[in-house]
Amino acid sequence: MIFAKVIGSVVSTHKDPKLTGKKMLLCKEVNHEGKPMGSYHVAIDAVQAGEGDFVLLTYGSSARMTETTKDSPIDAVIVAIIDDVQITKKITAQK
């Protein structure tokens, strides 16, 4: 899974019938603090995300496991809108 920020939407009049009715959003990868990184993804929205939302994406075969994306020709899906990321500074394991 990866962190991303929704930066826009993708509109397509002609597409595979299994994509009809699915909202496609343009997402930019970000780090855990929300700072932009390099890659962009077009993801199907499974959680009613919108522009500006900090989201969690999954891709590959896992992206086709939600109710919204089941049996659809997709490679990325938004599976959560992130409220907060907590990082513990305490070391709990070492090699």
UniProtKB/TrEMBL annotation:
Q: Name one Pfam family in it.
A: EutN_CcmL
Q: Where is this protein found?
A: Bacterial microcompartment
Tell me the keywords, alphabetical order.
Answer: Bacterial microcompartment
Question: Which domain of life does the protein's organism represent?
Answer: Bacteria
Q: What cellular-component terms does GO give this entry?
A: bacterial microcompartment
> Has keyword Hydrolase?
no
Q: What is its main location?
A: other
Q: Where are the transmembrane segments?
A: none
Checking PANTHER family in the record gives: BACTERIAL MICROCOMPARTMENT SHELL VERTEX PROTEIN EUTN, ETHANOLAMINE UTILIZATION PROTEIN EUTN
Record-given protein name: Ethanolamine utilization protein EutN/carboxysome structural protein Ccml
| The species this protein was found in | Melioribacter roseus (strain DSM 23840 / JCM 17771 / VKM B-2668 / P3M-2)
Q: What is the lineage of its organism?
A: Bacteria, Pseudomonadati, Ignavibacteriota, Ignavibacteria, Ignavibacteriales
